[in-house]
């Protein structure tokens, strides 16, 4: 009866002890069979049982009472079966050494050792990480104990070896087992155990070879074997191989289960292959298998990673409606998806839904919300979530503070950032590298280098490595791009003052900054410093300087530096030639540009798409359109792949020299060549058609652009409107004016000025003003 109560989950730990008290007091002895049945039921009671959380430990505790003779003669003397159960309890309770002690009791009492006793001994040895002894017992000592190893004996030792990351030894034992043959040949469990072991150790090749050997030996893999192979291949992102194994599994009659499909879906999801993951999910459902919450979470993760959080939410709510209870991980996935996409109202709706459904937000959830707002500079909202976090008595961790401090530092709110920094230390949360980097970056950008240096010293005193050169290079590059070169140079000096040796990346960033603000003399001084401290300038250094000269119109200086590169043992690369050729063409030196192109080819330097774009664009810009068209056609015949930018340039060039039909043919063949026309493509066609007076054709091209989903820019619409107005196409100009919404598209000053002049009292089109949209007839009042 007690055993039945254990299995039913209605017997508590206290009940078990009270039951033993009653047994000790009763007059009738308790037979060994009843005691063993009760202990066996306890051995199988796990944390999932309602009342007993650790049955094996309870069984050992109760037996200990028997050993202390509390029971007296009222409980039968333990038999070998009793000891077998108790040794198994020791393994289940993760107390294998006690199990070995119980085996010693068996030997001392002279009880006959059974096969199950020997197998449990092997299990205890393996659990105790004494696999060498387990192998010795299996191969040599079992016969001394009067037992013969069976398939279970071998499987226990094989599993022990694999769990100790000794799968190769397990394979040797498996092969020995196969060689000896007899009634103990390797079965599907033995093979599956070793295959799984190899996969765990990352030995995918050995695992797959053993899988194929298993089938060659006539051992049919079961579902567990196939799942092990599929899972490992999915984790290795070898999805094509995993798919083949799945199809082989079905062909061999081993029906895939929910675990199989969950592995496949998760594999495709983590590989970013949403289409295949969704297909596998549908196949799973078509087989009548019910996806578990892990399966659903995998698919939702994949959708969110592809920026399709709304679809993930629809899937989430549909699964909830079908009875799947989402866990906190499900909500985290959706929250993170919406946070990444900046869909904050949806994010907050999910957060509220989560709490309404009785799932309490943990620190991870709050961190997702805080970080999302902080990264978008919405610090007031982030601080509000932080306050809610404290109200719910959820303690902030290092991630919470990192997000808040980084967000405040980016906005220059450094006083508040330091307050949070001091608060986290007071609460016992130790700052890490991320926190210090955020503060140091903030103070450097703010110009307070003394405070930045103080923080560097402080982090080093805490045993945290100071920021490396890459950190400061990134900071200097960012400041240079904003035109704050002097501030960048101050940080450069700070790096040297800290005892760091600047590398080529840091020097190149500073040189580029001076080039951007047209201070080439200072850029050259940085180059001198670079060489004086033993940092060799590289091709990037020279490309940056040559580009700086070219952009500043100092092409001769750029050429001098370009010619200096080989003398410095620096071979010009593709970018070097592109920079200097672009400079030559822009300065009108077409012949020199051509010569440089030929030199590039002769030097064996790779010619890129950008190179062709510069050459063709340069020729067109310098009134050599026919030559550019001939080169373009020649390259096309050599199957050179062009970019859409080159095609746009050539269409415009063909119109400029009156080769209209060729231009139209080139435009019509864009899709066939594998390219996709962009707004510039349509703009070139429309403006050239309008110049030729082909207004209807231009309208048709505009309609094609609209149907392709390309939104015209404000600049293009203004160009079209002005062209139509100048040609007297007032009604058609009115159609385009109706697209001006004053938000994303607005009238430029030149367009407004033209309209004022055309529709004034003296204007030539005053009478046609009524053809304009009503909102533009205010010009009448102005005029």
TrEMBL record:
Coiled-coil residue spans: none
Family of this protein: Belongs to the PPR family. P subfamily.
Keywords attached to this entry: Repeat, Transit peptide
Protein name: PROP1-like PPR domain-containing protein
Domain of life: Eukaryota
Start and end residues of each PROP1-like PPR domain: 621-764
Residue windows of the PPR repeats: 79-113, 114-149, 150-184, 187-221, 222-256, 257-291, 292-326, 327-361, 362-396, 397-431, 432-466, 468-502, 503-537, 538-572, 573-607, 608-642, 643-677, 678-712
């Amino acid at each position: 009866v007690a055993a039945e109560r254990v299995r039913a989950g209605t017997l508590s730990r206290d009940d078990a002890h009270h039951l033993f008290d009653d047994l000790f007091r009763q007059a009738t002895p308790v037979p060994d069979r009843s005691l063993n049945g009760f202990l066996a039921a306890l051995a199988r009671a796990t944390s999932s049982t309602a009342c007993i959380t650790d049955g094996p430990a309870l069984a050992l505790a109760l037996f200990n009472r028997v050993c202390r003779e509390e029971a007296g003669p009222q409980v039968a003397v333990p038999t070998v079966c009793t000891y077998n159960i108790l040794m198994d309890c020791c393994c289940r309770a993760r107390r294998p050494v006690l199990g070995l002690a119980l085996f010693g009791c068996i030997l001392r009492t002279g009880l006959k050792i059974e096969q199950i006793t020997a197998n449990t001994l092997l299990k205890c040895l393996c659990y105790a990480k004494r696999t060498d002894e387990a192998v010795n017992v299996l191969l040599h000592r079992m016969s001394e104990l009067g037992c013969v190893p069976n398939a279970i004996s071998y499987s226990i030792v094989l599993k022990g070896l694999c769990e100790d990351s000794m799968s190769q030894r397990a394979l040797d034992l498996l092969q020995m087992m196969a060689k000896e043959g007899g009634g103990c040949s390797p079965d599907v469990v033995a093979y599956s155990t070793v295959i799984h072991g190899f996969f765990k150790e990352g030995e995918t090749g050995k695992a797959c070879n053993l899988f194929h050997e298993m089938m060659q030996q006539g051992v049919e893999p079961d579902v567990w074997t196939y799942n092990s192979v599929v899972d490992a291949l999915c984790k290795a992102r070898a999805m094509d191989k995993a798919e083949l194994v799945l199809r082989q599994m079905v062909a061999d009659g081993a029906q895939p289960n929910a675990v199989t499909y969950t592995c496949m879906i998760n594999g495709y999801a983590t590989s970013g292959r949403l289409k295949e993951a969704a297909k596998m999910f549908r196949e799973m459902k078509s087989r009548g298998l019910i996806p578990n919450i892990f399966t659903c979470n995998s698919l939702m993760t994949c959708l969110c990673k592809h920026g399709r959080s709304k679809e993930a939410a629809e899937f989430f709510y549909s699964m909830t409606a079908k009875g799947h209870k989402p866990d906190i991980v499900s909500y985290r996935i959706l929250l993170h998806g919406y946070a990444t996409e900046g869909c904050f109202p949806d994010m907050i709706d999910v957060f509220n839904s989560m709490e309404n459904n009785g799932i309490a937000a943990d620190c991870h959830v709050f961190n997702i919300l805080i970080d999302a707002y902080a990264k978008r500079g919405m610090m007031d909202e982030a601080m509000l979530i932080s306050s809610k976090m404290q109200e719910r008595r959820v303690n902030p961790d290092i991630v919470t503070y990192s997000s808040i401090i980084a967000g405040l530092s980016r906005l220059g709110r450094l006083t508040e950032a330091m307050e949070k920094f001091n608060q986290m230390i007071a609460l016992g949360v130790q700052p890490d590298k991320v926190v210090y980097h955020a503060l140091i970056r903030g103070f450097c950008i703010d110009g307070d280098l003394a405070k930045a240096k103080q923080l560097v010293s402080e982090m080093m005193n805490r045993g945290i490595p100071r920021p490396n050169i890459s950190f400061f290079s990134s900071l200097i590059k960012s400041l240079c791009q904003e035109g704050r070169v002097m501030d960048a140079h101050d940080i450069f000096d700070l790096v040297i003052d800290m005892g760091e040796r600047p590398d080529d990346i840091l020097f190149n960033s500073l040189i580029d900054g001076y080039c951007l603000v047209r201070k080439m003399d200072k850029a050259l001084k940085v180059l001198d410093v670079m060489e004086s401290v033993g940092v060799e300038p590289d091709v990037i250094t020279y490309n940056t300087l040559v580009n700086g000269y070219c952009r500043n119109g100092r092409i001769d200086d750029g050429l001098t530096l370009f010619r200096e590169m080989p003398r410095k043992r620096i071979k010009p690369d593709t970018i070097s030639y592109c920079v200097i050729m672009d400079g030559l063409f822009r300065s009108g030196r077409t012949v020199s540009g051509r010569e440089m192109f030929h030199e590039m080819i002769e030097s064996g330097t790779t010619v890129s798409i950008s190179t062709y774009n510069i050459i063709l664009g340069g020729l067109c810009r310098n009134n050599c359109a026919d030559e550019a068209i001939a080169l373009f056609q020649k390259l096309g015949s050599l199957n050179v792949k062009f970019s859409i930018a080159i095609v746009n340039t050539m269409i415009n060039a063909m119109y400029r020299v009156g080769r209209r039909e060729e231009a139209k043919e080139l435009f019509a063949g864009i899709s066939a060549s594998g390219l996709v026309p962009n707004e510039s493509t349509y703009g070139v066609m429309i403006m050239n058609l309008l110049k030729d007076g082909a207004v209807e054709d231009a309208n048709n091209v505009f309609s094609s652009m609209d149907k392709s989903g390309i939104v015209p820019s404000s600049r293009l619409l203004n160009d079209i409107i002005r062209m139509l107005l100048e040609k007297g196409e007032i009604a058609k100009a009115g159609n385009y004016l109706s697209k001006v919404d004053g938000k994303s598209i607005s009238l430029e000053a030149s367009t407004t000025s033209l309209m004022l002049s055309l529709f004034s009292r003296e204007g030539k089109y005053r009478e046609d003003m009524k053809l304009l949209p009503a909102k533009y007839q205010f010009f009448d009042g102005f005029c």
